[in-house]
């Protein structure tokens, strides 16, 4: 009588395989959301799991992530170029990725008025008025000339009727911006 080997556990019952599947799915979601760093991390975990059923697929997606990461890392020679790219994403309606780039820039060049202004515009477009006003105040503190730009910027149309916005952009009376820090009544 021959002994047959014990039946192999189905993959569905293997907790390591189930974890690899979860990592694969999370990696794909992150890839679709254009969160390439996060996707790369998840897909690397899938490959490290050693489950051949998923490794080949994960490698293909990992290559895509690496190409996107390499392309965006090498593209920007200056913070200004990086900012222009983020604004182009914002103008195309890709607010999530634009925010990622602007936040990265804010860490790289924290005193850049244009980055704070870009964050103010983005947060206004995504209907976060409190954040928008805070970023705009920071931008104006760094460069008072931005107050004039914001007055005609359609990105701030959600705030045009907000008295805090008006107060931030029109602190002067009679045209003397430096003399008054708050608007006076009557004029």
Summarize the helices and strands and which ones pair or pack:
Elements: H1 15-32, H2 36-49, H3 52-75, H4 79-91, H5 95-108, H6 113-125, H7 129-142, H8 146-151, H9 163-169
Helix pairs in contact: 1-2, 1-3, 2-3, 4-5, 5-6, 6-7
Question: How does this structure look, described?
Answer:
The protein folds into 2 domains: 13-75; 77-187, Tetratricopeptide repeat domain (Serine Threonine Protein Phosphatase 5, Tetratricopeptide repeat), CATH 1.25.40.10. It has helices at 15-32, 36-49, 52-75, 79-91, 95-108, 113-125, 129-142, 146-151, 163-169. The N and C termini lie far apart (105 Å). Mean pLDDT is 84; it is low at 173-187. The protein is mainly alpha-helical and 187 residues long. It is built from 9 helices and no strands. Helix 1 (15-32) runs antiparallel to helix 2 and helix 6 (113-125) runs antiparallel to helix 7 (129-142).
The domain tally reads 2
Q: What Rg is obtained from the alpha carbons, in whole angstroms? A: 25 Å
Helix proportion? 55-70%
Kindly state the number of beta strands.
0
Report the mean per-residue pLDDT as an integer: 84
State which percent range the strand residues make up. Answer: under 5%
**What string gives the helices and strands in order?**
HHHHHHHHH
Q: What fold name stands as the CATH topology of the largest domain?
A: Serine Threonine Protein Phosphatase 5, Tetratricopeptide repeat
| CATH fourth-tier homologous superfamily of the largest domain | Tetratricopeptide repeat domain
Overall CATH architecture of the largest domain: Alpha Horseshoe
CATH top-level class of the largest domain: Mainly Alpha
* Uncertain ranges: 173-187
Helical stretch tally: 9
SS content category: mainly alpha
Form type: elongated
The main pleated sheet reads as: none
Distance between the amino and carboxyl termini: 105 Å
What assembly state would you assign to the polypeptide chains in this entry? Answer: single chain
């Amino acid at each position: 009588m021959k002994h047959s080997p014990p039946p192999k556990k189905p993959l569905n019952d293997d907790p390591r395989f189930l974890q690899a599947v979860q990592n694969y799915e999370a990696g794909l979601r992150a890839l679709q959301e254009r969160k390439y760093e996060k996707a790369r991390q998840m897909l690397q975990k899938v490959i490290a799991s050693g489950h051949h059923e998923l490794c080949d697929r994960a490698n293909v997606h990992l290559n895509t992530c690496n190409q996107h990461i390499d392309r965006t890392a090498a593209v920007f020679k200056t913070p200004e170029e990086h900012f222009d790219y983020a604004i182009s994403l914002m103008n195309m309606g890709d607010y999530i990725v634009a925010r990622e780039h602007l936040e990265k820039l804010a860490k790289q060049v924290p005193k850049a008025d244009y980055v704070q202004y870009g964050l103010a515009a983005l947060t206004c477009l995504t209907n976060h008025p409190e954040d928008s006003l805070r970023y705009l105040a920071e931008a104006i503190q760094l460069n008072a000339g931005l107050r004039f730009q914001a007055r005609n910027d359609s990105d701030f149309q959600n705030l045009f009727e907000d008295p805090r916005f008006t107060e931030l952009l029109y602190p002067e009376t009679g045209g003397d911006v430096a003399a008054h820090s708050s608007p006076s009544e009557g004029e």
